Amino acid sequence: MQGNRDEYEPIIATRPSRRPPREDAPPLWRLVLVLSGGLAVAVLLVLWLMGRSPDDGASTNVKTEGIAGEAPTEIRPEVLPEVRLGQPPVPPANSSEENADVAQAPVPPASPAEPAVSAEQAATPASIPAVVPDAAVPSPSSSPPARVSVRLMSPDTQVRFELRGPLETSAPLTGQAGDVIALPPGTYRVVASGTQLETLEQEITLTGEGPAEYTVELCAQPKQELETLAGRIVEERACASTVECESMFAVLSEHADQLVKDPAFRKQQCAKWRPDAAPDRSWTLDTKCDGATLATTCRIEIAQGACTVTEPRRSVRGGACPQSDLK
């Protein structure tokens, strides 16, 4: 039995250690989480303060002071040193005194706030100058310009007037000599006409400075005198026999075709009637030969042709025309 007793280790009773057990330090991830949260809150607070209007500056400072005072109390328990049993506890810092020191700390004066800018002012570039309405341009609500009284005059009482404004779609205004019409200032096209009178078209401009008078004297249609030259002999030649007449006829026919195309020939024939006459209408020539006798002739005659004489252009009173005056 004793031999067996030597095989076992002696049982020695261990005494408990009088040193108090060590408490585990706070985990590191909690400290990192708290610091990250505090930094995020500080960044959001700065952005919020920058985006607020100047009117909220006072309330923002008060809230910032309150938050600044509370931040140390949240972080302080995590950064305390390790505490071991058997050591005297470290008295906690007086939170009321710290809050009082934070509250008594001088707050830096707020910078002067910039004036608030509206959305419309922000959308408008600063380089674009302000548009100042031109006082010379009439507004749509302004009254229309005053009309101008125009008296239509002519020595010929039968003259008729037609006035059309700048717009082609507007209806023309009509009147006769002696009428007075009212028109807005502007440019108008006037057409004056009458029986046995030449038509006159002219543009006039009404400035609106006062009443106006428009006087027109038209030309009378010139008289024309017409004279026909049919049957007049242009050229004549004699031939001794029938064979010679046939040959002469062919020669004169070819010559007649050339003459009728020459303007100088027609003008020369009209000058024989009147020096100032002019050819009128179309002309044709004819070649003829008399019977087959010993004294036979062949000639060129005017089959169709006329001349006209036109009198000089004069007004009804015999003066120069046309005449017009706006005053």
Can you tell me about this structure?
The chain is an alpha+beta fold and 327 residues long. Among the domains are: 26-77; 148-217, Immunoglobulin-like, CATH 2.60.40.1120; 224-310, no CATH class. It has helices at 2-7, 28-51, 57-75, 95-104, 119-123, 242-259, 263-271; strands at 148-153, 160-164, 173-176, 180-183, 186-194, 197-206, 212-217, 224-228, 233-239, 278-289, 296-310, 323-326. It is elongated.
What's the gyration radius in Å? 62 Å
Query: Secondary-structure element order, as H and E?
Result: HHHHHEEEEEEEEEHHEEE
How much of the sequence lies in strands comes to 25-35%
User: Would you tell me the overall average pLDDT?
Assistant: 74
Secondary structure class reads alpha+beta
Strand order of the largest sheet: 4-1-7-12
Helix fraction?
A: 25-40%
Largest β-sheet summary: 4 strands, mixed
Shape: elongated
* Helix run count: 7
The low-confidence runs, each spanning 5 or more residues with pLDDT under 50, are 58-88, 91-108, 110-126
Q: In angstroms, what separates the terminal alpha carbons?
A: 163 Å
Counted beta strands: 12
What's the SSE blueprint?
Layout: H1 2-7, H2 28-51, H3 57-75, H4 95-104, H5 119-123, E1 148-153, E2 160-164, E3 173-176, E4 180-183, E5 186-194, E6 197-206, E7 212-217, E8 224-228, E9 233-239, H6 242-259, H7 263-271, E10 278-289, E11 296-310, E12 323-326
Parallel strand pairs: 1-7
Antiparallel strand pairs: 1-4, 2-3, 2-5, 5-6, 7-12, 8-11, 9-11, 10-11
Task: Compose a concise summary of this entry.
This protein has 327 residues and is α+β, with helices and mostly antiparallel strands. Helix content is 28%, strand content 27%.
